[in-house]
Amino acid sequence: MTDKPIKGGVATWACLPGFPPAVIFPFTPGERFGVRSLYEFQMLMYRPLYWLGRDGAPEIDWDLSVGEEPVWDETGRTCTVRIKPWKWSNGETLCADNVIFWMNMLKVKGPRFGAYSEGYFPDNLVSFAKVDDDKVSFTFDKAYSKNWVLLNQLTMITPMPKAWDRTADGPADATHDIEQAEAVYEFLMAENGDVVEEDNSHRTRWAESPVWSVVNGPWRLKSYTEEGVVTFVPNEHYSGPNPPHLDELRQVSTTSDEQQYELLQSGDVQVGFLPPGMGVQPDGDPTKGGPNPLGDGFQLEPQILFNINFMAVNFSNPTVAGNMIRQPYVRQALQSCFDQEYGAREVYQGYGWSQTGSIPVLPKSDLVSPKIAERGGFWPFDLEKARQLLADNGWDVSASPAVCVRPEEAGEGIPAGTELSFSLRYWEGRPSLARLMAQFRDDAAKAGIEIRLEEVMGSVLVAEDGPGEKRMWELSCWGGGWVYNYPTGENLFQSGAACNFSNYRDARADELIAKTVTTDCLEALYEYQEYIADQAPVIFMPTFPRRLFEVAGNLRGFSPINPYGLINPENWYYIDDTAEGEA
Q1: What is the spatial distance between Cα 536 and Cα 540, in angstroms, rounded to a whole number?
Q2: Same domain assignment for residues 449 and 316
Q3: Of the candidates 190, 222, 254, which is a domain's last residue?
Q4: What family is this (predicted)?
Q5: Secondary structure of residue 161 in the 3-state scheme
Q6: What CATH number is attached to the domain comprising 52?
Q7: What share of the chain in percent tops pLDDT 90?
Q8: Dist. CA 449–CA 85, nearest whole Å
Q9: Does a structural domain hold residue 577?
Q10: d(CA 364, CA 55)
């Protein structure tokens, strides 16, 4: 029997608690740079140069990409990209100028873009230029890994229409005059509205904006309400493949896992997720759905991403807490207090796995260092090891919190009498995360480390506890981490990177990261990840499916799951489950 598709209909998606779409301008700053605003919101309307993920595999989807495959010259330093002649919704044709407009802004405002890393794109370009109306070229300062250039550099580009090249005074020309890029950026950020403000009043204006209503993707924004309900409708001028089947796609804000689960049970949403801890994977394989509490009316789809989970630790904190964090042995002790196996087995009910370092363990690949895999990480759960690290470095661990008794050994800026205590802010509204944090607190106390827990709304947490100099937060956990394109470390651990959440700076790490981007040799990747695993610039946490998606039984086209986190609701369609199928 075959499914009988139905044209039209409305599908409603329940957003993760505390994470409504916060930025519509694709030039998204580090404090809001994440899956929610980019992959599940912006990219429905504004297509990037290259689309990550094809049929569930971690590769480029050339059909959905605005750019064709790069062509390299014989030096291996210059590549040329042809732009497909798709249409913007105002009738403009996608062209080389749209890419140059983005590149000029990136050249001027790179540090304000979340994927920027100092010394890399566009800093590593000798030039970029319009070769023809539909072609652009990029000349790099040396030969790099072509795989890395494609997946980690050129994927940063989102072509921008001529209609966006303006200021409050009217049309501008940052496309051809890079000196105008600053003023155009300021105008577009003002049109977006405050990226930290949580009130939705400025977001309600996005749908009618003469800027944001110019789209080239399969969807356009119909409305964004004060209550956080986002409604998309098909872009009737879309000229790419796979136009939408649905009449509308709605995204609704939720405040807790329990609330969105109730929406699923009531039938008010067709795409949501099973709260972590409610589902059990009896076979211990987190890539496969186990028994579904919602029954046959929903499909259970684990969302396995090419990602790592971690807790950020703030190297830039100017207090004694920052001085302690800057000591490797303190971070190593913290990592040794985190029982990842408990989290994977008990908290996530078999839908989790230990993350041993900076390279994703799943999906399985040869990118993980054999040395790390064999040891289960450099600092696996070991409370006695944590206590010994502290005792060997000047701390009295006979009580908890431990007290500094030999400051000359403890490290610079840690006076005698200092108690080993940290505040840990984490995402509220997620019972599984709260349970994991409580276990970490209790285990750390046994080793002499006091952890003071504080729940914070998710979007507030990532806005306030992100990268930046002299910020006062100490430890921060939003329950996730980073989804990689190609797992080199320039985004997370390069000194000065816009998404270096821990504000980590280390010359040796920078040197090793630089090696990974100039060769496809796995030994360079192994050397880098082993150093990071030992240094613990973040506290690695158990990784789990980003969501255990619950999809209405009569909604098709949702799978295969994109391993990078992008979504294609234009592929979704309802079937007539009341009609008899045909053989």
Answers
A1: 8
A2: yes
A3: 190
A4: Belongs to the bacterial solute-binding protein 5 family.
A5: coil
A6: 3.90.76.10
A7: 75
A8: 59
A9: no
A10: 17
Q: What is the pLDDT of residues 323-354, one digit of tens each?
A: 999 999 999 999 999 999 999 989 988 999 99
Pair 516, 528: CB distance under 8 Å: yes
According to DSSP, the residues that pair with 549 across neighbouring strands are: 273, 301
CB 232 within 8 A of CB 44: yes
Helix (H) or strand (E) holding 104: helix 96-109
Give the C-alpha separation, 420 to 360, whole Å. Answer: 31
Beta strands 475-477; 421-427: pairing state: parallel
Distance CA 246, CA 254 (A): 23
Neighbours of 447 (CB within 10 A): 25
Residue 433 belongs to what domain range?
307-540
SS3 367: coil
Cβ 372 vs Cβ 530: under 8 Å: yes
Other C-beta atoms closer than 10 Å to the C-beta of 364 total 9
In a domain, 254, yes or no: no
Same-domain status, 395 and 521:
yes
Three-state DSSP at 11 gives strand
Coil/strand/helix, residue 440: helix
Nearest residue to 37 via CA among 133, 145, 115: 115
Q: What is the CATH number of the domain that holds 491?
A: 3.10.105.10
Distance separating alpha carbons of residues 570 and 472, to the nearest angstrom: 43
* C-beta neighbour count of 534 within 10 angstroms: 16
Instruction: Kindly report the pTM of this predicted structure.
Output: 0.80
> In b/e form, how buried is each residue of 178-208, taking b as 16+ CB within 10 angstroms?
eebbeebbebbbebbbebeeeebeebeebbe
Question: Could you tell me which of 351, 360, 345 has the C-alpha nearest to residue 276?
Answer: 351
Q: Collapsing DSSP states into helix, strand and coil, what is residue 538? A: strand
Q: What is the DSSP letter of 275?
A: P
Judge whether 126 and 140 are in contact, CB under 8 Å.
yes
